[in-house]
Amino acid sequence: MMKWAFVLCTLVAFSECVRVPMIKHKTARQVLQEKGLWGEYRKKFPHQPMVKFQQQQDGVQTMTNDADLSYYGVISLGTPPQSFSVIFDTGSSNLWVPSVRCSSAACNNHRQFNPDSSSTFKGTQQSLRIRYGTGSMAGILGYDTLEVGGITVSNQIFGLSESEAPFMEHMEPDGILGLAFPSIASAGATPVFDNIMRQGLVSQDLFSVYLSGDGESGSVVLFGEIDPQFYTGSFTWVPLTSETYWQIKLDSVTIDGYVVACADGCQAIVDTGTSLVVGPSSDMSRLIDWIGATTDQHGDALVSCENVNNMPDVTFNINGQAFTLPASAYVSEVGGGCMAGFGNGGTQQLWILGDVFIRQFYTIFDRHNNMVAFASSA
Description:
The chain is mainly beta. It is built from 7 helices and 27 strands.
């Protein structure tokens, strides 16, 4: 599972929208395998967790699917614009990119923001630190113009990293754009979408996410929009139980009608920045047994590729509605074998509905009503 900023330790037509081109490159998995680091990567990433009104310009932000491990797109900061690839992460709240003041190997392997090259940059003396599964990033905060999905956001606060965790060196994206609530933003920085709302840049105070599968193109974050081409049927609306992460109540997890986890109800977060579905160790052990998987030394749930067609559906019951993942949705091929997309969160009691879940259900994140909504992906 990938989780960059793991704070737990972490619609309308396109006619007026600007599309951001995708990046073509080797996937993170391919790079790590070539360097002989894939096994170590799996081991190191255990399964845990000024108001200025302008013309509304709802936007579409395309994203690259990096081997189903992460989804990222290109933004720009500064004047003239400096471009960066960032993970769009609903499980964290800060925007940050590497800076020219960073000497870590991870920064040297990525694009770096140069404040001196931007005529609109405003510096601060305020420091920023965000924790990761393998370490942390540290840096300083500044303000500049942000362009994301065709939307121009003025005076956006963001982090300029001055040191980064070593494993960032092998990851393709440069930084992170958090889409969770201000209450969990490090250093009290205002999240990007909060600034978008304050500046009146979208027609609706919501964004929606469609995630493609199998490394395919087409993944998007739509700011202010809900697009019918990405879903079928109707939406199930679910109220938030906390305005921190996008946190909801999960009623139960069932297989063939039997409750196998979350028997008394539990809390879950909807997190685009986590690749798997993650749950507490006791619940996840039962779930993994039910699907016929075994756990290896890295914590991965391994299954026989030949047996995928015989594996059961796993159903997540939310707000009276069943959201079912067939085996074809939760099993992926990795290094010549097959792995189930379920991770052990240890003692952490919050479930994480990560990309394995979101790929099956087009998701609306509604800040006006503090709700999420799910419909089957088209």
